[in-house]
């Protein structure tokens, strides 16, 4: 499974990086839907959250906590949305596990 995100992780494609460690990378979305739109991406190649197993618990928890740290760093900690699309029916386009961190404006309700 090689996606655009795998290529970003390998450094083959550029990104506006805000965080990276051995397991996770986070960068600005190329087509932001809000003033703050960050993608928090696992380096492990899971297609989506639905593919995660018990052994991925720590990774998933770390992704969520990194989201809270980025929200704080970008000063949107009072209100933001964290979401992950699972599968094409939910609008997932890049089939590599990632969370969207959206904020910086009042967000509408999810349909
Ligand atoms: P999803 O629909 O949940 O799969 O989200 C994929 C997201 O990746 C979309 O919001 C795209 O705008 C974003 N995206 C696609 N290519 C890039 C890229 N090269 N750098 C940053 N974000 C990207």
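-> sequence recovered:
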């Amino acid at each position: 499974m090689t996606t655009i995100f795998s290529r970003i992780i390998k450094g083959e494609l550029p990104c506006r990086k805000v965080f990276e460690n051995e397991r996770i990378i986070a960068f600005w979305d190329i087509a932001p839907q809000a003033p703050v739109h960050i993608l928090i991406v696992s380096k492990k190649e899971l297609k989506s959250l639905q593919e995660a197993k018990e052994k991925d618990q720590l990774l998933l928890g770390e992704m969520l906590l990194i989201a809270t740290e980025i929200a704080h760093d970008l000063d949107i900690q009072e209100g933001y949305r964290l979401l992950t699309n699972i599968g094409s029916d939910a609008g997932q386009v890049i089939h590599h596990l990632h969370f969207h961190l959206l904020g910086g404006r009042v967000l509408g309700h999810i349909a």
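The chain has a mean pLDDT of 97.
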